[in-house]
Design goal:
The protein is of the alpha/beta class and 205 residues long. The protein contains 9 helices and 6 strands.
């Protein structure tokens, strides 16, 4: 599990660095800037809400989408001040972005296992996941995420609106359920036990 100690101070400090108001709702995009992962579509989905207190942090290294492309999209949509373009972050610093966010979003076309989504869940963040995120199938009954019904922009916009309408306490409750699921299902000891059962079952055949 991600160490969430001193969360409030880490959250407040990073938000001050990025000029994000304390009362703002913040979504986190954490991953490669690649068209398959849909960073531009994520910016558009945030813009569709029309709420100046909704912010988006984009953390990741450039690939076939650049930070300049992201800024241009945000500027065209009138939300340049609400979209925070970070670039790649490594080591312990990345956890400060998890502490500063209220939810993680991935509209990716395809993710067999989204490591950053699982890590965000481990940090107590609710998730907004496209149908291409296989992790959603494992957590959909845990009430810790929004699993989009399809890849249409409307689905993402509706999920973001629902997220934005929840109180911080309600979001934290969702996050706590997700963190508990990670603690039960994604620990090394759990994998070890499951692999042991498979070996025992099929090793005798």
């Amino acid at each position: 599990l991600v160490d969430c100690s001193n969360r409030i101070n880490r959250r407040d400090q990073l938000r001050r660095e990025l000029a994000i108001p304390k009362e703002a709702k913040v979504l986190l995009y954490f991953g490669r800037l690649h068209s398959m992962k849909k960073p531009i579509e994520t910016i558009r989905a945030v813009a569709s809400g029309g709420d100046e207190n909704l912010h988006l942090m984009i953390v990741g290294n450039e690939q076939d989408v650049s930070l300049k492309d992201c800024y241009a999209a945000a500027d065209e949509l009138g939300i340049a001040k609400q979209v925070h373009l970070i670039g790649p972050v490594y080591g312990e610093k990345k956890y400060d972005y998890l502490m500063a966010a209220d939810a993680y979003i991935s509209l990716s076309h395809r993710e067999n296992f989204n490591h950053t989504a699982a890590e965000s869940l481990s940090a107590g963040l609710p998730l907004i996941l496209s149908p291409g995120n296989d992790l959603q199938g494992d957590i959909e009954s845990e009430r810790c995420s929004w699993g989009l019904r399809d890849n249409e922009p409307k689905a993402a916009s509706e999920a973001i609106e629902e997220f934005n309408n929840l109180s911080l306490e309600e979001l934290q409750q969702m996050g706590a359920r997700g963190r508990a699921w990670v603690g039960k299902n994604l620990q090394f000891s759990t994998f070890q036990e499951r692999i042991g059962r498979v070996v025992t079952k099929y090793g005798k055949q």
